[in-house]
């Protein structure tokens, strides 16, 4: 027993991290575990950071973030979604999307409040809910092609439900909701008083259809927090810049949490972020094109291996079903690493509803991906024949 905070003590180290650590013990591993673009941060963004240092922009900024950056956030996402958030009152600059999720949950939840999360899900959500004293209610989407259906949402909502966390495109499955699908979920939520946290961190990496922001649903605007950031769209994971776009009433609460937890995001990163949004509108196009090609390569390869797959529509993940090989996701990932020197993430890292699947990241050079898929193919053949 511990005399320390029980909510913290109950939190496990992420299954992704555990596996990534294990990988370092092997030589010659092709890692398909990476959760970030393999492209470097664009040069014009790096130059803007250097310039910010040279010019002495190294002090605290406003808690909410540089006014010029908030203005740029408003314009950038407003142009994409068609919904404009006020730079003064409705936008916060956070320390990555993780921090944006944290301040949203902490501002919204009271002890015992339930948070509905379609699963398999990004492993960051559950610990943040618990730290905010909420309770997670996962909804199994493994049987509904990894998308929450209106019927499932309706059933999951109880009098204790405070928030639904929706993501599109989804980590770890790569699926993305269509506008009609989101609209059907919004129609159900409109009849409740449940809030929506819409994690749109992969919005720029959606391949086939235009991304739909949950902000589009006007009836829910007062109860929606959009989570955004530059980690994926501009390959800036280490710069730690995220955003919340939410109504004033909520933003005024979230900024209190932000103020007393971090004061503000890094001033240097904020200047770089301003350049990313003002001068780097097309930065994600090259990644999107590359990852769409990589996606096609993965879909074809897994099809030939007879591993069932829901075709990813965005991000840079595929989540094949490994149940035909009759082993757990942990055993599969361990054996693949041991016997074929390819690293993937076991599906149970994304809640119990990810069991029977593995996450394969294709955020890498096509040659590396091809080599990894070849090794995977050899391994699958070997499993079938033994
Ligand atoms: N949300 C999802 C779905 C993610 O996959 C990630 C990172 O992998 C995050 C949020 C966190 O993003 P950031 O690095 O900006 O904190």
Molecular shape: globular
Say what the CATH topology of the largest domain is. Answer: Aspartate Aminotransferase, domain 2
Output the strand order for the largest sheet.
2-8-7-6-5-3-4
Question: Which distinct ligands sit in these coordinates?
Answer: pyridoxal-5'-phosphate
Q: Alpha-carbon distance between the termini?
A: 45 Å
In CATH, the homologous superfamily of the largest domain goes by the name Type I PLP-dependent aspartate aminotransferase-like (Major domain)
Radius of gyration: 21 Å
Describe the secondary structure blueprint for this structure.
Elements: H1 6-9, H2 15-23, E1 30-31, H3 43-54, H4 67-81, E2 91-94, H5 96-108, E3 114-119, H6 125-131, E4 135-140, H7 150-156, E5 161-167, H8 179-190, E6 195-199, E7 224-229, E8 242-245, H9 248-261, H10 267-279, H11 283-304, E9 317-318, H12 329-340, E10 342-343, E11 345-346, E12 358-361, H13 366-385
Helix pairs in contact: 3-10, 4-10, 5-6, 5-9, 11-13
Bound molecules: pyridoxal-5'-phosphate.
Report on this model:
By secondary structure, the protein is an alpha/beta fold. It has 13 helices and twelve strands. It has helices at residues 6-9, 15-23, 43-54, 67-81, 96-108, 125-131, 150-156, 179-190, 248-261, 267-279, 283-304, 329-340, 366-385; strands at residues 30-31, 91-94, 114-119, 135-140, 161-167, 195-199, 224-229, 242-245, 317-318, 342-343, 345-346, 358-361. Helix 11 (283-304) runs parallel beside helix 13. The longest helix is centred in the C-terminal third of the chain and has 22 residues, at 283-304. It is globular, with a radius of gyration of 21 Å. The N and C termini lie far apart (45 Å). Pyridoxal-5'-phosphate binds next to helix 5. Its cofactor is pyridoxal 5'-phosphate.
